[in-house]
Write a structure and sequence with these properties.
Helices cover 38% and strands 22% of the residues. With 492 residues, it is α/β, with parallel strands linked by helices. A 7-stranded mixed sheet has the order 15-16-17-14-13-19-20, with helices on both faces. Strands 10-9-8-11-12-23 form a 6-stranded mixed sheet, sandwiched between helices. Strands 1-5-4 form a 3-stranded mixed sheet. Strand 16, helix 12 and strand 17 form a beta-alpha-beta unit. The radius of gyration is 24 Å and the shape is globular. Bound molecules: nicotinamide-adenine-dinucleotide. Nicotinamide-adenine-dinucleotide binds next to helix 7 and helix 8.
Length: 492
């Protein structure tokens, strides 16, 4: 059963929806059925240029940047309220487009509401400083918005990851041009439609649809682009960093991961099993911070793997819009096939399939991009399934007897996004958290984040950070003003 959305989703530039300059459209498929879901306009290099021009003009001519931050705060609060009032419709749109269960999509939309509220609260707290200098002088700094900021988002949390950088950029007074992922652009367009009603001037929030190679690169290379925030694969992130470097434009990169979960011998196995299950099967494992490598103390291996097998085997798969579904389809047919290739390779390399490992046999799910929750054990450490980001519901399990060995294995990856630790011992928790080579560590917790906590990757997982009280800083520049006070003589 396909749910076709009647409307066509178009580019949103200068407060108006418009078709792409070439007049092209493409059909998006419902990942649960591969039946047509919606038509979307395809933007071009010319559309990217037009959006940058409109944004630049709005930045210079509207009062968005110059106004008291409290006015921007009001608009962002209003946008949060409008989104909250329409949360069900947004969650449904996200689910239909991306595939995740409605319960998860509702969580995502709630997170976006909270993100706007949080950054609204910071919009009037952009402060400079005064600096003591010799002689009759007065020195101070001001923090000013950059101008036009470019944001390129992935398909796994379409609205959430886009707004994680758009909200602080707007709060700081910038004009934004967003390119959502080609597969999942619907909620970004729907949100832009709310901007006018929220009181955000036309041209301050623009959404350009289209391919990364054409539209994304054109945005980054545009002379008006003052910063790039990219969330996606390392390959594209590095390329964009090079393009931006050529124009000395700062970049924030949020990239991939291969998250280790280290379970010590004194861990709470029940809680760990639930959290690990959520951390690898949530969003069908399509998470940069997925808990994809389990390193468990030998003494707990059998009970923990048994509990995880139970969780995997019992999970209800189905279209995300259906009641009681716990895991939806993967985003596309190609991606599901790609994930299963990793599983096949691990199996033929000697890995043991403890759960899943295939598409579901249920006839009702045949047409969709479903992959069963999968647990692989004893896959050789050199295998691609252990070393590369699979970005699907596949957990690789290995065990250890010595903690140092576990930490070495946890850090033995080019990635460094989020690592999880399970122990009841406070000393071990804090000392091992220091030794984990990653931008984030969770202790006795599933992968979890809040708008007020920094989100950052180490090593190949990223550059810079998002979220938290300092997240406006990369969207402002510091200007120093030095004033000579006239030799101390009073001017009449
Ligand atoms: P992707 O790199 O293929 O695409 C991400 C975005 O970049 C899309 O909007 C795409 O259209 C665009 N793009 C592609 N090629 C481009 C180019 N040459 N120039 C400009 N833009 C281009 O990634 P994806 O498949 O959408 O997302 C999955 C990846 O994202 C995974 O590696 C995942 O770990 C990562 N990710 C990281 C985080 C994080 O916060 N660290 C969060 C979510 C996803």
């Amino acid at each position: 059963m396909a749910t076709t959305l009647e409307a066509t989703f178009e580019l949103y530039i200068g407060g108006k929806e418009q078709p792409g300059s070439k007049g092209e459209q493409r059909t998006l498929l419902d990942p649960a059925t591969n039946q047509p879901l919606a038509r979307v306009a395809v933007g071009s290099r010319d559309d990217a240029r037009a959006a940058m021009e409109v944004a630049d003009r709005a930045f210079r001519e509207s009062n968005w940047a110059a106004d008291d931050g409290a006015r921007r705060a009001k608009a962002l609060w209003k946008l949060a309220g409008l989104l909250e009032a329409n949360a069900d419709a947004f969650a449904r749109l996200e689910t239909l487009n991306q595939g995740k269960p409605l319960r998860e999509a509702r969580g995502d939309i709630g997170y976006v509401v909270r993100t706007f509220e949080y950054f609204a609260g910071l919009a009037d707290k952009v402060e400079g400083e005064t600096i003591a200098v010799p002689g009759p002088r007065f020195d101070y700094t001001v923090r000013e918005p950059l101008g036009v900021t470019v944001h390129i988002a992935p398909w796994n949390y379409p609205l959430l990851l886009a707004m994680r950088s758009v909200a602080p950029a707007l709060a700081a007074g910038n004009a934004v041009v967003l390119k959502p992922a080609s597969l999942t652009p619907l909620t970004a367009v729907a949100l832009a439609r709310l901007a006018k009603e929220a009181g955000i001037p036309d041209g301050i929030l623009n959404v350009v649809l289209g391919s990364g190679a054409e539209v994304g690169e054109a945005l980054v290379q545009d002379a008006r682009c003052r910063s790039v925030t990219f969330t996606g694969s390392g390959e594209v992130g590095s390329r964009l960093a090079l393009l931006a470097a050529a124009r000395l434009v700062p970049v924030t990169l949020e990239l991939g991961g291969k998250g280790p979960v280290v379970v010590l011998a004194d861990a709470d196995v029940d809680r760990a099993a639930k959290a690990i299950g959520f951390g690898i099967f949530g969003n069908a494992g399509q998470m940069c911070w997925a808990a994809s490598r389990l390193l468990v103390h030998e003494s707990l291996r059998a009970p923990l793997v048994e509990k995880l097998r139970g969780i995997a085997d019992r999970m209800k798969l189905g279209p995300g819009v259906q009641d009681g579904v716990e895991m939806g389809p993967l985003v596309s047919q190609e991606h599901a096939a790609h994930v299963l290739e990793y599983v096949e390779e691990a199996r033929s390399g000697g890995g043991q399939v403890v759960a899943g490992g295939s598409r579901p046999t249920d006839e009702a799910l045949r047409a969709g991009n479903f992959v069963r929750p999968t647990i692989l054990a004893d896959v050789p450490a050199t295998s691609r399934a252990v070393r590369e980001e699979i970005f699907g519901p596949v957990l690789c399990v290995s065990s250890f007897t010595d903690v140092d060995e576990a930490i070495r294995a946890a850090n033995d990856t080019p990635y460094g996004l989020l690592a999880a630790l399970w122990t009841r011992d406070l000393g071990s928790a804090h000392s091992l958290a220091r030794r984990l080579d990653s931008g984030m560590v969770v202790v006795n917790e599933a992968p979890t984040s809040f708008p007020q906590t920094p989100f950052a990757g180490a090593k190949s997982s990223g550059l810079g950070f998002e979220q938290g009280a300092r997240a406006l800083e990369p969207f402002t520049r510091r200007k120093n003003v030095l004033v000579h006070l006239g030799g101390g003589k009073r001017v009449a």
